[in-house]
Design goal:
There is one protein chain. By secondary structure, this protein is mainly alpha-helical. It is built from five helices and four strands, in the order ααβββααβα. It has one domain. The protein is about 65% helix and about 5% strand. Helix 1 runs parallel beside helix 3 and helix 2 crosses helix 3. The termini are far apart.
Length: about 160
């Protein structure tokens, strides 16, 4: 538990901003299918963070609500929202998928950069470049999950 309420506000703010984006961008008729990509993204993120934290690569501070070493506000905020929206806007053409991976990975890495600069994510034996590689890999996996497992034929792009 935190002694200072302000110490964990970053996680709450990130959570709120992501859910505002969710409600602005979501196409409700696709939610039943695309939500599974958000859940899969949460599982991937928890596996990566749990291992990285246990190997002392980085630490997450002021979690407010701890979920296997991560902040529940992060897991149920950016990770669930981005995973769901990622699937919803997943393009049909392969070259657009490459651009999609690059753009979403960049935005996700930028969000991580700001979380690191705020002091909520502290790199110990880690660097932002490591995260960029992991983020690109995760987006490729989410792309595969959307195309193959969810068999999503619809393309917004």
């Amino acid at each position: 538990m935190k002694s200072d309420y302000g110490e964990c506000m970053e996680w709450i703010i990130i959570f709120i901003i992501n859910w505002i984006l969710f409600f602005v961008l979501i196409e409700w008729r696709l939610l039943k299918k695309t939500l599974w990509c958000g859940v899969f993204a949460m599982l991937l993120q928890l596996m990566v963070d749990t291992q990285a934290i246990s190997h002392n690569l980085y630490e997450i501070r002021n979690k407010n609500i701890d979920l296997f070493g991560s902040s529940a506000f992060f897991v149920f905020g950016p990770v669930l929202v981005i995973g769901t929206l990622y699937s919803q806007y997943h393009p049909k053409k392969w070259w657009l998928r490459v651009i999609h991976v690059i753009i979403v990975s960049s935005l996700y890495s930028l969000e991580e950069y700001f979380i690191n600069k705020s002091g909520q994510l502290v790199y110990i034996n880690w660097h932002l470049f490591d995260s960029i590689v992991v983020n690109i890999s995760a987006m490729i996996i989410l792309s595969w999950f959307t195309a193959v497992v969810l068999d999503k034929e619809r393309s917004i792009a």
